[in-house]
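Session log. Operator J.P. requested a structure for one protein chain; no other inputs attached. Running the standard single-chain path with token output.
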Amino acid sequence: MRKNLVIAIDGYSSCGKSTLAKALAKKLGFIYIDSGAMYRAVTLFFIRNQVNINDPQAVIDALQHIELNFHSRDYESHITLNGEEVSEEIRKMPVSENVSEVAANKMVREEMVRQQQRMGKSKNIVMDGRDIGTTVFADAQVKLFMTADPKVRAERRFNEMQSKGDTETTLEEVFENLAHRDYADTTRKESPLVRANDAIILDNTSITEQEQLDFALQKVQPFLST
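Structure written below.
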């Protein structure tokens, strides 16, 4: 099998990007990199340390004190923030409500892109996010753009939160949060969420996880031996 094959998966919030990315990584023996978790971890650090996102110097100083690492267990990606496991905390509403603003910051994105590109220089990887196929790895061999009906996405996210013990957040709040994030992600100045011209659309509104995996594998197969 070839080395340095990059599979870039972009798309809207709660479209199941990470679910597909992890399944692909497991099936192909690739490394899974959760770019969204990186921005969430930065957001958590900013919240904890009351970093003013509108103060450029404060952002620069904060980024110098953030060290992110991934640890993989059974192809589940676990992220640490300065050595602390934060995989669950970064999925809670306080982070969800602020991550789009943090991710839109030019200095934050430049630092995260630098780290992401370093990770993909010499390994076969699957990476999901908002601008992987347009900015981080514009030359990725395989690009997928995921989408789904907003109501279905909200229900999926709500059910996930419920299963993890969050019984306070309502379905309406989740739907409104996703709508806000969609707007922020698609209209931000720095690397907005757009489909790369050569990205393949995958609408998973009414298909199963296995069906979307089969679809993706079919698109990846031609590149595995070239």
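Operator note: The mean pLDDT is 91.
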